[in-house]
Every structure is written in structure tokens, then in C-alpha cells.
Fold this protein.
Amino acid sequence: DQQVKQNSPSLSVQEGRISILNCDYTNSMFDYFLWYKKYPAEGPTFLISISSIKDKNEDGRFTVFLNKSAKHLSLHIVPSQPGDSAVYFCAARRGSGNTPLVFGKGTRLSVIA
Amino acid sequence: KAGVTQTPRYLIKTRGQQVTLSCSPISGHRSVSWYQQTPGQGLQFLFEYFSETQRNKGNFPGRFSGRQFSNSRSEMNVSTLELGDSALYLCASSSGTITDTQYFGPGTRLTVL
């Protein structure tokens, strides 16, 4: 049973436009969420996180939105740049106790110049 | 600060053999987690070690084992390799607190023939 779902395996966006990557989760106990970016032949790198007490967190061009009632979060990248082309993973964890991260399967973003 | 390092970067083994992978965390980090990434499956959690003790374990068979040393370095062992064990094995380190970010190494690409 997949607890974190990224239903779009791939996404193509033109340079300068907004990229929106989506993530759904099923476990209502999750209360801390992260996005990672992964380039080929490298490990994932942390992008941005959000706690369930917030509904939005911004860091430069990256904004994560959390809708707890819908169990949905999204990552917005504005403006998109060719260097943003990578696989993006959504991850979640329960805040109580040191529980492991649960990852989605990833969305491959291609930003076209 | 040096990042997470993993050795070796690439390995080719045959079915039935065993393999040991190594991970050196970021200095000061006491938690090391291991993940398996296969095509289309995202990152699947194997186990986490904190201060030399296994703190969390994923849903993998007993052929997968690990340990952590007093300097926080960790090793992962897979015995009786199967073709399906071919994957990218990623190690991540963190301070071990609930909201602390996990930082990933570049991974070890294991191919089982």
C-alpha cells in the first residue's frame, strides 16, 4: 500500500513558466513533509519542507503548499529554469517518534528552453 | 563540512554472492538511514541506525542487514544476492531529531548478474 503518491511520472514545462508538482498521501498521521530533487548519478538533495502546522512555505523560487483536509501537497517552481530538470521526490513522516521518511515514486520534470 | 560519502560507487556481483556497502555520514550526524531505489519504485526504506542501534526497520527480508560503528560510519550487507537486488543503494545521514533534514550520499549502484 503506497502511502505517498506522485501520480504524474513526468512533467514538461517551458523555461520561465511555473512548474507544479503534486503529491498525495493517505496516512493522516503524517505531519512533516519534504521535497527532494535528484539528478542522475547523484543522491537526492533536500529542497524544502513543511510542517503540518503551516499551509505554505517559501524558499526563493520554491514554494510548497499543504492541504491537510485533502491530504495533498504541491511544489511550485517559479520561474522554471533548465537546471531544474530532475526527478522530484515527495516524502513524509510522522512527527511523533523518530519514524522513517516515506517517499513517493518521483516525478521527472523537464524544463524546455 | 564534507558530505555523505558512499563506497564503492559501483559494484557488479553474481547471484548467490554477498556484498557490503559502506557509508560515512556528515561529521556530527548520529543517524544513518539506508534506502533502495529501483526503477519506478521510488526510495524504499531499509533501516536506520542511531548511536550504533537499529532504530527503525523497513519491510525487507533478513538477507539485508546493517550495522553502525562508534564513529557513526555504517555498513549494509546483502547476503545470497538475487537478480532483483540490482538497485541504487542510498545512504542518508542526519542528527536524528524529528524534523532534521536527511542528507543523502551519491549512492552505490549494485548490479547482480
User: Anything to note?
Assistant: The two ends of chain A are 38 Å apart (CA to CA). Chain A touches chain B at residues 6, 9, 32, 34, 36, 41-46, 49, 51, 89, 91, 93, 95-106 (CB under 8 Å). The mean pLDDT of chain A is 93.
